[in-house]
Fold:
Amino acid sequence: MYQQIIYDTLIGQKIPPILAKIVTAQAQFESGNFKSNVFLKDNNAFGYKYVGQKIATKGIPSPASEGDNYAHYNSVQDSAIEIANWLKRRVREKKLPALEAITTPSQYSKLIKAAGYYGASENTYTKGITKIFNSLKIGPVVTGLTGLIIIAAIFFFIKRK
Structure:
């Protein structure tokens, strides 16, 4: 459920589909399969700290070793919007390439580490995201007229054979 919500929100924020899937895997990894305290209490799928951002308020305290508080979001969608905005800012700052150029979890992990996103071991982070990415069964949901046209085209080609 959360996977599709995050993925759809990222697509709505104009994040390319393959990167949206990678970032969705990141959310699941960061939030401990959507079961972490900060996720459940603050709708915070990425472990963001509160630094006065407009889209969030002050959430639960982070561990004393980290200081500060986590960001609290009104919804999981707001948390996904936050990371979409972060990615776009890093592109503008030339800390990331064009988002369309990011196509693998390992490439993404390396790039966001270099951009200062996380301090953990790159190897551990990459393995965690990659494992989840490889098991994700999400993607664009086709509905409405587009879905009807696709179904009609499939039926037409099957019927012709």
